[in-house]
Design a protein that fits this description.
heterodimer; A: alpha+beta; Pnp Oxidase, Chain A; UbiD C-terminal domain-like; 2 domains; 14 helices; 26% helix; globular; B: alpha+beta; 5 strands
């Protein structure tokens, strides 16, 4: 059976039953879904959540069950692409390099065409949530938008959003600098409306692959196949035929057209930086057809939560690792922590770097992605997945007059509210590495850090010394 | 202060933070008072570029559309 969201949920529930929460009680998608995720996240818990009976914002029972938090867990996302959390940056690069050509299915063979709605289209049937107060309304967030370049016929896919504004239309949040925006502008420049399809719900590997950083024009399908480790199955859309194809194993596809130069005010909405994006003019999509599986799951991503931040960060971590490894072969790993929204902060680890290499990493990482704002470079005795260790190195291994790099007036994302109106901002990097060793017999010419012998920590048996139920009842402090 | 900020009263924000600091850190958007419900919301400054003249503002709270010149109050323009 081809991989999809349902097959993943079944497999994951079988192997990790503690990590799948199925809620049978009716739950409102207005704030309650987001509230539960916030509450779980504050306790460091990131299970997949399946709402069997979501209540729409309008108070109706939705026929579509709702899946949330799918991409919130670094471990789950890593396993879905066949790696471990601490190896994401390295393995993602390898995996997407193993491109696989997609397979084309006939309409009748595609699960996403089990139900085809052309005349009875109603976006209000979908359990589209409102996550945060002061937002302008419902927002489809677990959605991938596919467009096509009119010059070459090459498609592009990105995780982008839509706000239903009627039963058959949406305002679209397609970032101005994105490849999809470029494709849509090209159609409009030719005086034509732009073909567009939004697909919702797929295997996490497909979702993560949909966010891979590619050039333009370059299709995402082969990279998604690489992450899925099987060819992605595609099917022509009902509206656009072979011009615009979509994943055949998606849960739901919304097809439509973006009319030339038709703009309306969109937002305010939340985004990964955990701020509301101010209202601004956005294109609109007029829905021509909705196809879906029978009993399709509707995938929602709560904006600004780990669900939004983790899955999308793999491609950025891989891009940073790849770029920095070229300028500093001593780089051993990189990590984009949740505290930096998996976008703004990079922890880079090096082993015995030559002079200048840590600073080369800082400059390169800061310029790899506009969202990266701060880079910390540490030695390999520091666990970059333990924030206390990184900040310990920062506090004890850096001369701020020499080891701090400040860049001003460099391109920065407007998703970060501190970026100025001209799209530039300040960035910072800190070299927290130890001085090089003058002699092979010593690790570094620096005061030796305290360590409990690794073997002692490994051998101590917590369970025999401290009763398990007492550990569960202990109040965790940071 | 936190509660006032969440209630979208930008005047109080300036009073506490200092006008200069608020302007330095808030150059990308404008606070708009809705012509219908009188609640404030934030709008990208680029919305005032001539190419968007024909696109009305839309209040995220009450969804009323109105022209920029109809806004009873703009802060930060």
């Amino acid at each position: 059976m081809a991989k999809g969201l349902k097959s993943f949920l079944d497999d994951w529930d079988e192997t990790h039953p503690e990590d799948v929460v199925v809620i049978d009680e009716p739950v409102s998608v207005k704030y309650d879904v987001a509230a539960l995720q916030h509450k779980l996240e504050s306790q460091g818990l990131f299970p997949v959540i399946v709402y069997k009976h979501p209540i729409t914002v309008e108070g109706k029972n939705s026929p579509f069950p709702l899946v949330c938090n799918l991409l919130a867990s670094r471990r789950r996302c890593a396993e879905s692409i066949g790696t471990r959390p601490e190896r994401v940056a390295m393995d993602y690069v390898k995996t997407i390099s193993a491109r696989m050509k997609p397979a084309l299915l006939a309409n009748g063979d595609a699960p996403v065409k089990e139900v085809i709605e052309r005349s009875r289209i109603d976006l209000n049937d979908l359990p589209v949530p409102i996550h945060h107060e002061n937002t302008s309304g419902k927002e489809i967030t677990g959605s991938y938008i596919t467009t096509v370049d009119p010059e070459t016929g090459i498609d592009n896919t990105a995780c982008q959003r839509g706000e239903p504004i009627s039963d058959k239309s949406m305002s679209m949040f397609i970032g101005g600098g994105s490849h999809n925006a470029r494709n849509i502008a090209s159609w409009w420049a030719q005086g034509k409306d732009a073909p567009v399809a939004m697909w919702i719900g797929h295997h996490p590997a497909a979702c993560i692959g949909g966010q891979v950083k590619l050039s333009h024009p370059e299709s995402h399908w082969e990279a998604m196949g690489g992450l899925l480790r099987e060819p992605l199955r595609l099917v022509p859309t009902e509206t656009w035929g072979d011009l615009l194809k979509v994943p055949a194993d998606a849960e739901i596809v919304i097809e439509g057209v973006m009319p030339k130069n038709k703009l309306i005010a969109g937002g305010q909405f939340g985004d990964w930086a955990r701020y509301l994006i101010p209202s601004h003019p956005r294109g609109t999509m007029e829905v021509t057809c909705i196809t879906h599986r029978r009993g399709a799951y509707f995938h929602d991503i709560v904006t600004g939560c780990a669900d939004h931040q983790v899955g999308g960060s793999f491609a950025i971590a891989a891009a940073v690792y790849s770029a920095c490894k070229k300028v500093a072969p001593e780089l051993t790993n990189v990590h984009l922590p949740l505290s930096g929204m998996c976008r703004a902060t990079v922890y880079a680890q090096v082993k015995n770097p030559k002079p200048g290499r840590a600073k080369a990493i800082i400059h390169t990482a800061l310029m790899t992605d506009q969202r990266i704002k701060t880079v910390f470079v540490v030695d390999d005795d520091v666990d970059i997945f333990d924030e206390r260790e990184v900040l310990w190195a920062f506090a004890t291994r850096a001369h701020f007059d020499k080891d701090l790099i400040l860049l001003d007036g460099v391109p920065s994302t407007t998703m970060n509210p501190i970026t100025r109106s001209d799209g530039v901002g300040t960035k910072m990097g800190v070299d927290c590495t130890l001085p090089p060793s003058p002699d092979p017999d010593i690790p570094s010419h620096y005061q030796m850090p305290m360590r409990v012998p690794r073997e002692a920590v490994q051998q101590i048996d917590l369970g025999t010394l401290v009763p398990g139920d007492k550990i569960k009842r202990m109040v965790r402090e940071s | 202060m936190k509660e006032e900020y969440l209630n979208f009263e930008p005047g109080t924000l300036n009073r506490y933070m200092g006008v200069a600091m608020a302007e330095e850190k808030s150059s990308r958007f404008i606070f708009v008072k809705c012509a219908a419900c009188a609640k404030f919301f934030q709008v990208e400054r680029s919305y005032w570029e001539p190419k968007y003249d024909a696109v009305p503002l839309r209040c995220p709270h009450c969804h009323t559309e109105f022209r920029k010149e109809e806004a009873p109050k703009l802060i930060g323009i």
